[in-house]
Design goal:
Rossmann fold; two-stranded antiparallel sheet; globular; 171 residues; alpha/beta; 8 helices; 6 strands
Length: 171
């Protein structure tokens, strides 16, 4: 019997505590964690993309960081649906798991993915690089460090980046 579980849940939380063993999770899970391959086509992502398409011209969005990209399925969808509307759109995926980023590179070779823990790694080379951060299904894992997460994430934005109307930001 293997000492590793093939159930991705076993690497995330145990007894109400965050384990955060994301590299092992991506290495050993028998299924796609959180069914990312399917949820990338969910109604919620449909709505996100519709909102982005609506505001692209107004906010001159040229670079998007999918922060917490996992295996990159949403990054790929953003690329396929938004890049035809924006010349030279740059989509970058960043995930805390270097294993997820490596697998995402293999799955979606037309997008750049990086394993970076923005809470603990040096992110100075990423500062002021993106017009928009796309953050989906990440807050569960940074809740204990939410203030630090938002502070660090904000540094990734170009000055004035990520400024969507308050009604959308609050939603």
């Amino acid at each position: 019997m293997s000492k590793f579980s093939d159930d991705y849940h076993d690497y995330v939380f145990k007894n109400g505590k965050l384990l955060g063993q994301f590299d092992d999770m991506y290495r050993h899970s028998k299924e796609v964690p959180w069914h990312q391959d399917k949820t990338a086509n969910s109604l919620f992502v449909d709505l996100d993309i519709a909102i982005l398409k609506h505001f692209l011209p107004e906010f001159n969005i040229r670079s998007i960081c999918d922060l917490g990209c996992g295996l990159g399925y949403v990054s790929a969808r953003l690329h396929s649906e938004i890049s035809p509307l924006v010349a030279e759109l740059n989509i970058t995926g960043i995930d805390v798991s270097t294993e997820a980023a490596a697998q995402a590179c293999l799955l979606h070779p037309h997008i750049n993915f990086f394993g970076v823990n923005i809470l603990h790694d040096d992110i100075s080379s990423w500062e002021r690089k993106f017009d928009l951060l796309y953050v989906k299904d990440v807050l569960w894992y940074v809740a204990q460090d939410a203030k630090l997460f938002f502070s660090k994430a904000k540094t990734l934005l170009k000055r004035g980046g990520g400024a969507l109307p308050a009604a959308i930001r609050a939603g």
